Amino acid sequence: MSKSKVTQLDNLARIRLSQNFFLRDFLYSETAAVHGINNIPDDLELAVAAGRQLCEQVLEPIQAAWGRIHIRSAFRSCEVNQLGNELGANCATNESNYAGHIWDRRDEHGFMGATTCIVIPAYLDYFEKTGDWTSLAWWIHAHVPAYSSLYFFPKLCAFNISWYENRQSPKNISSYVQDPNTGHKKRILTADVESDYYQNISLQQRYAACEKLFSSKSGS
Asked: Which domain holds residue 53?
């Protein structure tokens, strides 16, 4: 790789998306690293615009409340995402990921969006003891109105969280992890409608465990 290319990539990675996040934070991909692919945007302007909204409206409020968050995966170039899909590495098709993990493509409706997979270390110990991911999901639902969807995974209570330009789009909360309250893996929020179990429980009660964690942290 030429020195000019290295300089170009270095400058790209230094782009600041919000107070605490830079583009570099979102570019690492195990798939890209193993296969020698540069995971960089084709449309830098669009990727930065979508990434800034994700960071400013979604990630910054979470980090302000919980402390440092860990980025598991985020931006994928079309080439990286297609390879991940072909390898069966839990990547949807490119078209399905436009305005999702593929930040630099608008979706079929012309909207931009961005998705990242994150871990909240301050919540992890509680999750590993209880298996309760739902409290965190409902806390985000109550306190981060700009998110568009959540999808939780079994390891580290990692979850995909998205920002989407069309604010009229209904919200969904899904999981590959069994809900400890119901024993199933069904969505707890579908098109803005809570699943039956949660409909008679106040929103604050649904994330009460998070409030206890905050109280314990402030009292320590």
From this structure: 3-219
